[in-house]
Amino acid sequence: MDIFTVITILTVLAAIFGYINVRFLRLPTSIGLMIISILFSLLVIAAGYFDPDIIELETALVQSIDFQKVLMEVMLSFLLFAGALHVNFSELKQQRLPIILFATLGVLTSTFLVGGLMYVLLGLLGLATPFIFCLLFGALISPTDPIAVLGILKKAGVPKKLETKIIGESLFNDGIGVVIFLTIYQIARAGMSEIHWNEIGLLFLEEVGGGIALGLALGWVAYQLMRTIDNYEIEVLITLAIVMGGYLLASTLHFSGPLAVVVAGLMVGHDRFRTSTMSDLTERYVDKFWELIDTLMNAVLFVIIGLEIVIINFEENYVVAGLLAIPLVLLARYAALALPIALFSKRLEFVPYTNVIMTWGGLRGGISIALALSLAANMPRDLILTTTYIVVVFSIVVQGLTVGKVVERILERAA
After folding, report:
1. Which residues of 139-155 are buried (b: 16+ CB within 10 A; e: fewer)?
2. Is the dihedral angle over the CA atoms 76, 155, 351, 138 positive or is it negative?
């Protein structure tokens, strides 16, 4: 299928599924769209027993989408910028130290905990897998997905301070997680003997430090341009250029594009930036434009995730591994958050049972699936992809639907 046909089909499906959700299910958009997409795919699979052409059509559609490339190189920059644009900067600044530890030490700790636990689990299931590939799974499943988190926490009733921690962590830890994943991926492909650890340190510093520095530069450029004009159309276009051009430049320079657009989004969304560069009309149009972009891309993204079910290999052992991986991933996240929370809980007056809420509210999403799809053919790709898909679907549907009730009960008990 050509690209226009694919985009058209996905947009039409997103609109139809979105209408069904709003009219009948009334679930959070991301959850509703994904559930309806999965049900649609299951109906297609069932119909395929009577008419194989039906399932072949959906399979052709899904296979024509390079999900890893579409998400990581196209959609992610827009979604991260839109999310960062509306984060309360002053609250984020107040919570910066635990957020930094959650997004760095937390992700790294979770990667190794998940990797170790999965190594043992897969061995017990007769699916013995080299430890380096278990670490790859740990790296791709440990970062919480800002796209899933932002859409669901808005309606979950989470206290503002805790919401800032979860959203701030999710905005930054996907960039860190991608760097960790790529590092382990290089080791898996080249072998330990071919890797020099000083090169890994320099790669990490270049990706993370370069991404943050580039984001600051992009924000500064946007400020210098927007403060000298008062034209909402061009100012909206400037924000769009900052995101697209900045992400492309980051890729060219081998910096972290996700971190660059998050930092730029935080700067453009800062109150001082807005008051000194935007008129009320411009601010309204900038916000509405990025809200629309966020809604459109979220809708398409979660429709794709639901449709991906037709290419997943649901071999019995893989499904068992995926189901058992769910508690292991949650346990690893709980343990990884323990130290940062213990260090800052008294100084910053954390909400009671912060670790439980952050563990259950730390949702996985499209980024994990995209990274799993990027694995090479000579790696245990089907096993990791199936396990990842099951964890992600559970995370978005079960955790996403219940996080509000979990928070409510915990706060009632703590009161």
Report:
1. bbbbbbbbbbbbbbbee
2. negative
Q: In the structure encoding, which two tokens stand for residue 278, read together?
A: 């935007």
Q: Are 370 and 141 a contacting pair, CB within 8 Å?
A: no
pTM of the model: 0.93
Q: What is the mean predicted confidence (pLDDT) over 271-296?
A: 93
Token code pair at residue 123? 């061995």
Question: In which band, very low, low, confident or very high, does the pLDDT at 52 lie, cut at 50, 70 and 90?
Answer: confident
Q: Rounded distance, CA 14 to CA 33, Å?
A: 7
The span from the CA of 39 to the CA of 31, in Å, is 12
Tell me the one-letter amino acid at 402.
Answer: T
Long-range contacts of 344-349 (CB under 8 A, 24+ apart): 344/97, 344/98, 344/101, 348/94, 348/95, 348/98, 348/161, 349/161
Nearest to 304 by CA among 65, 82, 144, 75: 65
- Is residue 319 within 8 A of residue 388, CB to CB? The reply is no
| CB hemisphere CA count around 126 (13 angstroms) | 3
CA separation for the pair 121, 141 (Å, rounded) = 16
DSSP string, 69-98: HIIIIIIHHHHHHHHHHTS-HHHHHHTHHH
Token readout for 275 is 């008051």
What is the phi/psi pair of residue 101, to 5°? -70, -40
Burial (Cβ within 10 Å: 0-12, 13-18, ≥19) of residue 305: buried
Among 133, 261, 105, residue whose Cα is nearest residue 189: 133
Residues 49 and 46: their CA atoms lie apart, in Å, by 6
Res 386 pLDDT > 80: yes
Give the torsion sign (CA, 407, 410, 412, 415).
Answer: negative
Instruction: Name the strand (E) or helix (H) holding 179.
Output: helix 160-190
Q: At what angle do helices 232-253 and 280-307 cross, to 10 degrees?
A: 50
- In a 3-state reduction of DSSP, which class is residue 301? helix
**pLDDT at res. 222:** 96
Q: How many CB atoms lie within 10 A of CB 295?
A: 15
| pLDDT value of position 15 | 96
**Residue closest to 273 by CA, chosen among 242, 236, 227:** 227
